[in-house]
TrEMBL record:
GO terms for biological process: DNA repair. Gene3D superfamilies: Winged helix-like DNA-binding domain superfamily/Winged helix DNA-binding domain. It comes from the Bacteria. Residues 8-77 form the Methylated-DNA-[protein]-cysteine S-methyltransferase DNA binding domain. GO terms for molecular function: catalytic activity. The keyword DNA damage applies. Keywords: DNA damage. Pfam families: DNA_binding_1 (PF01035). This is Methylated-DNA-[protein]-cysteine S-methyltransferase DNA binding domain-containing protein. The keyword DNA damage applies.
């Protein structure tokens, strides 16, 4: 995976406001790549950004991250799922149009 794709994905994650979440697929649609590529970037380099705001389409994260993510979600007012494996993404999904606009502005110098 290239440095440009990594930077584009990480910038999109950084722009998700506190208390809101997006899925790997949401960010993939904005960046112009696939959800698996977004997941790979987040797994490899996501610790430098608000990784807990980027989940799978069901609002879940890899099991080893859920406890730490839950602490962030509670601080930000993101409610968890009843099964304890993720957050209620539909209740907290970020405004994807606003995120796209912000991402375009934030990455204009890269593209």
């Amino acid at each position: 995976m290239g440095e440009l794709l990594t930077e584009l994905v990480l910038r999109s994650a950084e722009l998700i406001p506190p208390g809101e979440v997006a899925s790997y697929g949401d960010l993939a649609g904005i960046v112009g790549t696939g959800p698996r590529q977004v997941g790979a970037v987040m797994a490899r380099d996501g610790s430098s950004v608000c990784w807990w705001r980027v989940t799978n389409a069901s609002g879940e994260l890899p099991a080893h991250l859920v406890d730490e993510a839950r602490e962030h979600w509670q601080r930000e007012g993101i409610t968890g799922k009843a099964n304890g494996r993720g957050c209620r993404i539909t209740a907290h999904r970020t405004d994807l149009l606003a995120l796209t606009d912000a991402w375009r502005e934030a990455t204009a110098n890269l593209r």
